[in-house]
Specification:
single chain; 552 residues; alpha+beta; five-stranded mixed β-barrel; two-stranded antiparallel sheet; 19 helices; 57% helix; binds flavin-adenine dinucleotide
Length: 552
């Protein structure tokens, strides 16, 4: 089993020293979240992840979740650990105090997400979708539904799922067939089959709250006819207690390459009672509230798995840069949700939207590279089960696939986010980055000059993509993955520049720590960042090499 020491020092460095974000610092609700408080939380988080959760990774891999007489049983030890996990309040970390949450910012919960992903991704998935469901219900449901369901989800007594995929559709949700029929009391009866549902059934919680996409019988075909429903495993009575079983059964659970402790279920809905969330036929956009935040969390899964596998400078320079970029993105997410000024919220929201596919795809792709390299370092023993490294590789392999495959993320980036507002968002991002990275410190200058060259590459690449999107969509499609990677590598370099500014400014406070940061950044700039340009060169070769290929 790999050993794991949570990177609390690096996380605290980010929290204390990289808070120089004007809009984030204006958020009233986080004024009392002091570094001392965050340090206490992270130290406790480190203990539970290192001592209680980490050993479950191997247990779950060797004793996968099973379906027995219609009941899904989690691996040995999961129940006891989950009980302690919710008693200590970890499910409620970033939730609203109104529903029993601790009200911590995403900057803090993202650190916890990373630690939990390092310790055991399978165990994490049982509560991860609960937070996604919490966010979706909180944004789109009526007060009655919120008051009835959120406190138990926040407490961890009930968990959540996200039910999109069906036998005929994963990416193309316009094809979905699950039907919802309106009843005289305003509720709906749902009938259909959902597949690949993470934590779709298990024995950890008293109830499971499914968020299900379905089509009301008079709604049109395609994505425009999809609505969102809350469908509990057990009907919740008026007094808030769990009542009779709803019409949902588990058909089977998947046998998988990795994350074997996580139950991935086929769920059959047979006239199951459901409650519509949000407006009729606006289900897909409501579900995207859940999915967008989830995509960032999946990126963090890649980061967490990379962290526990790491041992080379290449990995270290990517991981620490990713963590710093993630911290910046968490700040932007908070500003997009809670800043009093509408313009500040909108600008931050544009950045979150631009960067979500990048973090989801690049971090998870790099985690494949990092876990593969980690296996290689161990030679033959890396391939055997002894070191637990091959499990990290297998567990991570799902992250580029679920929550929208990485190629679909790249298409989302170039066709929606990049061309949106005629390229204003990327241009604003580039201008802001250039303005921020202009320190006069002599020592940082070589880094900035190098960085500016790559910013120019990104600018040329962005202009090329925006222009091509008007004339040749095939070129844009063929370049999408490369563009995502160039934007990602340059964004990580931006995060490194922020780290370097602090490292040179506060150098005398902690020389060893900052020497390490400066050397790691140098490695990133010399050995990793050049990949940004290679992707650009590959992309501008266009699509004729694919489209004109002659198959004999
Ligand atoms: C372990 C696991 C857990 C999961 N958990 C959940 C869950 O909790 N809830 C849920 O609803 N689903 C879940 N899924 C389903 C997952 O989200 C889908 O498998 C994924 O979205 C891909 O859909 P698909 O399998 O139908 O593949 P397809 O959509 O058929 O994709 C196959 C390939 O084609 C590519 N492709 C598809 N469309 C395009 C396009 N337009 N342009 C370019 N390339 C394209 C994809 O990138 C991919 O490489 C889970 C899956 C697994 C394996």
């Amino acid at each position: 089993m790999p050993t794991y020491t949570a990177p609390v020092e690096d996380m605290m460095f980010l929290f204390e020293k990289l808070r120089n974000n004007k809009e984030y610092n204006e958020l009233e609700k986080y004024k009392e979240v002091t570094p001392d408080l965050v340090k206490d939380i992270l130290q406790e988080a480190a203990k539970i992840n290192q001592n209680l959760i980490l050993p479950l990774a191997k247990v779950g891999d060797e004793n996968p979740a099973i379906l027995e007489n219609g009941v899904v049983r989690t691996p040995p030890g999961y129940k006891e650990a989950y009980k302690k996990y919710i008693e200590d309040g970890w499910t409620s970390l970033s939730c609203d105090p109104k529903y029993g949450g601790q009200g911590m910012p995403k900057t803090v919960s993202a650190f916890f997400d990373e630690m939990l992903s390092s310790a055991s991704l399978s165990f994490k998935l049982y509560s991860e979708l609960s937070i996604g469901a919490y966010n979706c219900i909180n944004h789109h449901a009526s007060d009655e539904i919120k008051n009835k369901y959120l406190p138990k989800i926040v407490e961890g007594k009930w968990s959540g799922t996200m039910c999109l995929t069906e036998p005929v559709c994963g990416t193309d949700l316009g094809l979905l067939k699950t039907k919802a029929k309106k009843q005289s009391d305003g509720t709906f009866k749902l009938t259909g089959q959902k597949i690949f549902i993470t934590s779709g059934d298990h024995d950890l919680t008293e109830n499971i709250i499914h968020l299900v996409l379905a089509r009301v019988d008079d709604s049109p075909a395609g994505t425009k006819g999809i609505s969102l429903f809350l469908v509990p495993k057990f009907i919740v009575k008026e007094d808030g207690n769990v009542g009779p079983r709803n019409g949902i059964s588990t058909g089977s659970i998947e046998t998988k390459m990795g994350i074997k402790g996580s139950a991935t279920c086929v769920l059959n809905f047979d006239e199951a009672t459901g409650y519509m969330i949000g407006d009729k036929e606006k289900g897909l956009s409501a579900m995207f509230t859940m999915m967008n935040l989830e995509r960032i969390v999946v990126g963090i899964q890649g980061l967490g798995i990379s962290e526990i596998a790491r041992s080379l400078l290449n990995m270290k320079s990517i991981i620490e840069g990713e963590r710093a970029l993630c911290f910046w993105l968490s700040q932007q997410t908070e500003v997009s949700l809670y800043h009093p000024d509408e313009k500040a919220r909108r600008e931050a929201s544009d950045y979150v939207s631009l960067m979500t596919p990048v973090v989801k795809s690049l971090f998870t792709d790099l985690a494949m590279e990092i876990t593969s390299d980690a296996m290689q370092i161990y030679g033959g023993y890396g391939y055997t089960k002894d070191q637990g490294i091959e499990q990290l590789y297998r567990d991570n392999r799902i992250t580029p696939i679920y929550e929208g495959t990485n190629s679909v993320q790249a298409a989302d980036l170039v066709f929606r986010k990049l061309s949106n507002k005629n390229g204003d968002v990327i241009n604003k991002f580039l201008d802001q980055v250039k303005n921020e990275c202009n320190s006069n410190n002599e020592k940082i200058r070589p880094f900035i000059s190098d960085f500016n060259n790559y910013l120019d590459v990104l600018k040329k690449f962005s202009d090329w993509m925006i222009e091509k999107s008007k004339t040749d969509k095939d070129d844009v499609s063929a370049a999408a993955n490369d563009y995502l990677k160039t934007l990602g590598f340059v964004s990580i370099a931006y995060a490194w520049i922020k780290v370097l500014e602090v490292s040179f400014k506060d150098y005398n406070e902690n020389k060893n720590f900052y020497d390490d940061k400066i050397d790691t950044a140098r490695f990133y700039f010399d050995k990793v960042l050049p990949r940004a340009e290679q992707h650009y060169k590959s992309a501008i070769s266009g699509s004729s090499n694919i489209m004109n290929f002659k198959f004999n």
